Amino acid sequence: MFKINEHYGQLNESYLFSTISKKIAAYAAAHPDAKIIRMGIGDVTLPLSPAIIKALHESVDEMGAKATFRGYGPEQGYEFLRNKIAETDFRNRGINIDADEIFVSDGSKSDTGNIGDILGENNTVAITDPVYPVYLDTNIMRIGQSEKIHFLASNASNNFLPEIPNQKIDVIYLCYPNNPTGTVMTKAQLEKWVEYARKNDSLILFDAAYEAFITENDVPHSIFEIEGAETCAIEFRSFSKNAGFTGLRCSYTVVPKALKATNNKGEKIALHALWNRRQSTKFNGTPYIVQRGAEAVYSPEGQQETKALVAYYMENAKTIRKGLLEKGWTIYGGANAPYIWVQCPAEASDSWGFFDRLLDECHVVGTPGVGFGKNGEGYFRFSSFNSHENTKEAIERIKNWKI
Ligand code: MLT
Fold it and tell me: Parallel, antiparallel, or unpaired: how do β-strands 339-343 and 203-207 relate?
C-alpha cells in the first residue's frame, strides 16, 4: 500500500481559521436570530476601489478580443506590474530593488508556505510564538515536528517582541507589523536582526503583508530599508489587506540577487535562481486580469483610494482600542496594524473558553490567541476588517458585557 506523508499526522486536525468558521457555522445554525459580528479572520469587507474595478473591466475586455487575448503569462509576473512595484514600493523610498527581483504571486500565504521548497531540510528554523500558523504548519509538513524548529517567545514580558536568539539559527520567520499581536519593530530593532543574520549566515523570511497599516515614522515598511538586508532576507508583500485583494489573489515576493546560500559542496548559490526555478515549475503565474487590477493600485487614483481603505480599517482599530481600554482590558497592537491583541479577562477560562463565551453572550467573533501558539494562551485577537457600524456595535456589546 502506498504511504502518506506522516508529517501531516503531526498537525492540528484542521487549520485555525477553518476550525473557527466551522464553529461559527454551527453556532449560527443553532441560533438563527443571532446577529453575529465577525472580527476573527483578517478578511477585508470593503469593495475594491473604482480605479481597480476600471482596470479589471478593461482587462476583461482585452481578454475577450482576438487581438489582445493572452494565454500563459510569465511565471514571475508581467513587467508592467513588476516595474510599478519596484518603482513605487522600493525605489521611490530609496530602496534599491530591481523589477526582476520581484516575483508576482497569488498570495503571501502561498509564498510563505512554499518558500521551504528551496531551503535545505537540515536548517534550524526559528518561528515566533504566537505566529501566523502557516509558517509553522508548512514547516511541520516539510520536516515534521522536530527539534530543528525553535520557538521565539513573544509575551507580555518582552512586549510581544521576541528576543534575538542566543544560538545560531539558519532560517528566521519575522512578520512586522505582526500578525497576530499587531506589534511593530522600530528600524533600530530590525537592524539588530539583520546584524544577527549577517553575522550567523542566516536567512530572514520577512512577511510585510501589513506594511500599509504603519502610521509611525520610525517603523520600517520593508526590511530592505536596513543596510545589508539584501544579502540575508526575502520579503513577502500582499495586495490582500491594503487593496482588498483577498478574493482576487495577488502578492509578490522579493528575492534579491545578492542573497546567496551554500550547497553541500560549499558553493555559493543565488536563492533568486532557485525561487525562479521553483516558480516556473510549480506556478503558472497570477492571472493577467488580476495583475492589471494590481497595477491600478499604483495609479494616482489607486494610491489615493487604497490609502482611504486602509484609513477606514484603522479607524476601526482606534474604536476597538479605545473601547477595550475603557473596559479596563490590557491590549497591544492596533496602532500600526489592523489587529488588536487582548489579554483575556480573568473570568475567561482560557482563550477558546473566551471565544465561546464572546460568541454566545455577545455574538462577536474573534480569534483565540492559543490558535497562534502556546504563548497566545490567555490572549485573543480582534480584527479591524469590518464596517464602522459593526465595529462600534461589537465594542458596545463588549462594553456592556458583564464580564
Ligand atoms: C489572518 O486572519 O490571520 C489572515 O487573514 C490570514 C491570512 O492572511 O491568510
Answer: unpaired
Measured from the CA of 179, which atom of ligand 1 is nearest?
3
- Helix 300-326 to helix 388-400 angle (10° resolution) is 10
Q: Is 256 in the pocket of ligand 1 (CB under 6 A)?
A: no
The minimum-distance atom of ligand 1 relative to the CA of 41 is 2
The domains located in the chain, with CATH, are: 6-47+301-399 (3.90.1150.10), 51-299 (3.40.640.10)
User: How far apart, in whole angstroms, are the C-alpha atoms of residue 325 and residue 342?
Assistant: 10
In angstroms, the Cα distances linking 60 to 56, 68, 242, 293 are 6, 10, 23, 10
Q: Are strands 364-365 and 37-38 parallel, antiparallel or unpaired?
A: parallel
- Looking at ligand 1, which residue's alpha carbon is closest to its atom 1? 42
The pLDDT assigned to 403 comes to 83
* Alpha-carbon distances of 285 from 111, 241, 279, 290, 318, rounded to whole Å: 12, 21, 8, 10, 38
Mean pLDDT across the chain: 97
For the record, the C-alpha cell of 284 comes out as: 503558472
Testing ligand 1's pocket by substitution, the residue of 15, 16, 17, 251 carrying the most ligand atoms inside 8 A of its CB is: 17
* Nearest one of 132, 111, 143 to 174, comparing CA atoms: 132
pTM equals: 0.97
Q: What confidence tens digit (pLDDT) does each residue in 94-145 have? A: 999 999 999 999 999 999 999 999 999 999 999 999 999 999 999 999 999 9
- Alpha-helix residue ranges (DSSP H) falling in 115-186: 133-143
Q: Using CB atoms within 10 A of its CB, is residue 301 exposed (0-12), middle (13-18) or buried (19+)?
A: middle
Neighbouring C-alpha atoms within 13 Å toward the C-beta of 378: 6
Length of the chain: 403
Query: Is there a contact between 337 and 331 (Cβ–Cβ < 8 Å)?
Result: no
pLDDT tens-digit profile of 320-376? Answer: 999 999 999 999 999 999 999 999 999 888 999 999 999 999 999 999 999 999 999
Below-50 pLDDT ranges, the chain? none
Q: Is residue 309 a contact partner of residue 99, using CB atoms and an 8 Å limit?
A: no
Side chain identity at residue 86, one-letter code: A
Query: How far apart are the CA of 42 and the centre of ligand 1, in A?
Result: 5
Contact (Cβ atoms closer than 8 angstroms) between residue 337 and residue 183: yes
In terms of DSSP bridges, do strands 268-270 and 149-153 run parallel, antiparallel, or are they unpaired?
Answer: unpaired
Q: How far apart are CA 128 and CA 162, in angstroms?
A: 7
